[in-house]
Design a protein that fits this description.
51% of the residues lie in helices and 14% in strands. It is α+β, with helices and mostly antiparallel strands.
Length: 111
């Protein structure tokens, strides 16, 4: 079995937002979910660049929904994790959990 792809912090946040949104994971909703959950407001260009890059890597897949009058006849582009994207996210989160094990982040800092 191939080693899962390495993910950066923002890629993980985007993937987690996609998972949280399920069938409603499209650009504006992903950006809103990231803001709601993290307080960060990613620029649309940064988000779409990341989504495009992750699609090229095979981490996410996308498809277009139906055009809607509210969007001036433009369709929404929806996103979902691929199997390799899910594996990469699980691997990254397990690594974080391993690093956190035994630490008390809520206590007083040592320095």
């Amino acid at each position: 079995m191939a080693k899962p792809l390495s993910l950066g912090e923002f890629e993980q946040i985007v993937l987690l937002a996609i998972l949280r949104l399920g069938d409603n994971a499209y650009g504006v909703a992903i950006r809103s979910e990231i803001t709601l959950c993290t307080g960060r407001q990613p620029a649309p260009g940064a988000l779409y660049t990341t989504l495009d890059r992750m699609q090229e890597k095979g981490i996410v897949r996308s498809w277009f929904g139906d055009a809607t009058p509210q969007r001036g006849g433009r369709p929404k582009r929806f996103f979902a994790l691929t199997k390799s994207g899910h594996a990469a996210l699980v691997s990254a989160q397990q690594a974080y959990q391993n690093m956190l094990r035994g630490l008390d982040l809520l206590g007083e800092p040592n320095a």
